[in-house]
Amino acid sequence: MKALITGGAGFIGSHLAEYLLAGGHDVIALDNLATGSLDNLSAVSDHPRLRYISGSVLDEDLVDTLASQVDTIFHLAAAVGSFVIRDRTLASLRTNIHGTEHVLAAAHRHQVRVLIASSSEIYGKNTKIGLREDDDRVIGSPLLHRWSYSEAKAVDESLTRAYVTELDLRAVIVRLFNTVGPRQSGRYGMVIPRFVTQALAGEPLTVFGTGEQVRCFCHVLDVVPALVALVEHPEAYGTAVNVGSSEQVSIRELADRVLALTGSASGIVQMSYEEGIGPGYEDLQRRVPDCSRAHELIGFRPTRTLDDILRSVIAERSRPGLATAVS
To answer: Which residue is catalytic, options 123, 149, 188, 237?
Structure first.
């Protein structure tokens, strides 16, 4: 495989780059480092099969040039995180919609297969236990920045589906449910690295809202092989596929587990959404995936538990120089 990873210096992208390189594949990592970091690629920075390109998916000519050099694109570049969407809504919409347009168009021109990373945010406020890919979207007002990310990802999915059905593009959509693990930053609102960093720094863990919200977290090392298997699976083309864990935990319980595993006496403070994130934010009470389609297609089943995930993040954050590197 000759692969282009957009967002290749990001959290998921860097793990995917390592996985592909270990398999003997060639990798081009495209990233503008808006939220990514070259430190994420430090373990493979000198690898002869890796080429890092500084640039953006909004650069249509650059995306086209790179697409002409590969046979597979993993489109992971996106503006993500509740704080990013809140502070840079317009730029986020442009990145998440126009960037995907550029990737799809280039993939079609050069007959390159492509994986489009979408999100569980697609389901919005649908709290069904075991969300399936054909379940309805339930989202709030488009005037609230909270839902702009979901809207952008929905447009991405519709564009991808149209390219497949009308232009025979080989493309699969993957809806990721809270992918977590080492290298993920808490700076943009991601809850596990934020909690771990606060606990290790002796700061109170800030829980937004009631803390009764339920989420499921999946280790990035379980997710990455699934991405590769799905882009190589013709039966997946034109479909959306959930990838995540079904192990449920409330945010309050998550905070308690972080405190227990770190041995921290930091304590927990609750904060309203308006105080912690800003006005116009709506949350949902539960988001649990049904990943039957991924299991049927590629045998996907997460092997790492939530405690495994937390221990891996704690171990990374405990290294000298990293404990307070992410706020």
So the answer is: 149
CA distance 101 to 93: 12
- Could you tell me where the beta strands, DSSP code E, fall in 202-301? 205-208, 214-216, 218-219, 240-243, 248-250, 268-271, 288-289
| pLDDT-derived band at 326, boundaries 50, 70, 90 | very low
Instruction: Tell me what pLDDT residue 322 has.
Output: 57
- State both tokens at 245: 């864990």
- Give just the sign of the alpha carbon dihedral 78, 185, 140, 132: positive
pTM of the prediction?
Answer: 0.94
* Chain centroid offset of residue 12 CA: 7
Dihedrals phi, psi of 84, to nearest 5 degrees: -65, -45
CATH number belonging to domain 2-179+220-244+290-300: 3.40.50.720
Question: Domain segments of the chain: what residues?
Answer: 2-179+220-244+290-300
Of 309, 116, 86, give the one whose Cα is nearest residue 188.
86
Q: Is 19 among the catalytic positions?
A: no
| Segment 101-108 mean pLDDT | 98
Q: What pLDDT band is residue 327 in, cutting at 50, 70 and 90? A: very low
Which of 2, 66, 71, 1 shows the shortest CA–CA distance to 31?
66
